[in-house]
Amino acid sequence: MAGLLDACASREAMVYDTKWKRRGVIAGLAAATVGSLMPDEWQQAFAQEDMAPTPSCDDGDEPTPAQTEGPYFTPNSPERSQLQEEGMTGTPIVLTGLVLTRSCAPVEGALIELWHANDAGQYDNDGFRLRGHQFTKRNGIYRFATIVPGLYPGRTRHFHVKIQASGKSVLTTQFYFPNEPGNEGDGIFNPALLLNITNGSDLTARFDVILA
C-alpha cells in the first residue's frame, strides 16, 4: 500500500508526452454538462480540479492496449456501479473515466465490466463480490465505487476490465497503479495502462479508454 500512497502524493501517473491535450478538453466539456445528465455521485467523480486526464486522445491515436483476461473472469455479473459492500475490508476507491473513440468522440451505452481481487488478494469465484458492469452515460462517463485490490503472488496491483461499444468487439485489458513495487516484476505490466490517482476527499483513480 506504500506504493499507492506515494502515487497519491507525487501524482506520477502521467508518464506520457505532454503534446496530448485534446482529451482534457473533452473531459472539461463532459464535466460542464454532467450536472444536467447525472445524479450527484456522477458529478462528484469529475468535480476534482486536480484530477488530470489519462493520456490524451487525439485524432488517430492508438486504442487502449488489450491484455489477458486472466483465469478469474465470471460472466453475467450484476449491473451495478457500487461494488463495495457493507462490512467489506479494504481502502475505498472510485474508479472513473471516459470511453472514447479514436476520433475522441464519447461513446454512450458502452458496456464496461470490472472485476478484481479483494483486500487479501483473493477473487470471489463462487459469487459476484467485487464484480459488476454498467453502461456509459451520454458523455461516455463510467464510475465504480469499490476498494483497492490486494496483492497475490506473481502479480502487481491491478483491476480487470472489459469494454464493448454496441455492436463492436470487446476490449479486455487491465489497469495498473503507479509507483507499485511489483510493477517492474510483473511480466504483463504495461505503463500505458497506468491509472491517474488523486487523493482528495475520496481516493479516485481515473482511466480514459480509447476504443478501436
Overview of this protein structure:
The chain is α+β, with helices and mostly antiparallel strands. It has three helices and nine strands, in the order αααβββββββββ. Helices cover 15% and strands 23% of the residues. Strands 1, 4, 7, 8 and 9 form a five-stranded mixed sheet that branches. 38% of the residues are buried.
Provide the descriptors you would attach to this structure in a database record.
single chain; 212 residues; alpha+beta; five-stranded mixed sheet; globular
| Main β-sheet description | 5 strands, mixed
Shape descriptor reads globular
Share of residues in helices:
10-25%
Number of helices: 3
What is the strand content? 15-25%
Q: Outline the low-pLDDT stretches.
A: 5-52
Could you spell the SSE succession in H and E letters?
HHHEEEEEEEEE
Q: Report the strand count.
A: 9
Task: Assign the structural class, choosing from mainly alpha, mainly beta, alpha/beta, alpha+beta, or little secondary structure.
Answer: alpha+beta
Distance between the termini: 34 Å
Q: What is the residue-mean pLDDT, rounded to a whole number?
A: 81
Radius of gyration: 16 Å
